[in-house]
Amino acid sequence: MKKKMLKSFILNSIMKSGKKCTAEKIVLKSFKLLQKQRFKKNYIFILKSAIINSAPIFKLKKLKKKRKLTIEFPFLLNNRLKISSGIKNILKQTRQKDSQSFYNNLNLEMVKSSKLIGESTKLKKEVHQTAFLKKKFINYMWF
């Protein structure tokens, strides 16, 4: 995936109520922090590995069968959806932490998920475990 597309995915998922300028500031601050503290030229590699490690292969869909009965079944994601869900997982975990600033939390979560110890990778593992448990409903793929 190209660097511009990756940056636009991140910006669009961070942006709330149309404030693109603040989203760009947050992303640039976290990238600069990555470059200064840990990895001078390999920050793009760290970013890509963090997204790959936090991107799930399966997603659970809910299907309403009757009035109150719903069935969850797993389905495979294509590459574009994998990347966007990986970015969303990373951002969800950074928004839950209130200890430091947002760009600092984003930086820490990217480094941790690139090393496979972050909360977003744990979320990915939980999704895969539930998809494995629900695999008997995998034949419901007509949507």
Quick summary:
The chain is mostly helical. The protein is built from six helices and two strands; from the N terminus they run H-H-H-E-E-H-H-H.
List the helices and strands and how they pair.
Elements: H1 3-14, H2 20-37, H3 43-54, E1 58-64, E2 70-76, H4 79-96, H5 102-114, H6 119-133
Antiparallel strand pairs: 1-2
Helix pairs in contact: 1-2, 1-4, 2-5, 3-4, 3-5, 4-5, 4-6
Overall geometry comes to: elongated
Gap between N and C termini: 28 Å
Query: Which sheet architecture does the biggest sheet show?
Result: 2 strands, antiparallel
The CATH level-2 architecture is identified as: Orthogonal Bundle
- Could you name the CATH class? Mainly Alpha
Helical coverage, percent range: 55-70%
Uncertain residue segments? none
What is the alpha-carbon Rg in Å?
17 Å
Sheet with most strands: strand arrangement:
1-2
What is CATH's topology name?
A: Ribosomal Protein S7
CATH superfamily caption:
Ribosomal protein S7/S5
- Give me the secondary-structure category: mainly alpha
H-E order:
HHHEEHHH
Amount of beta strand: 5-15%
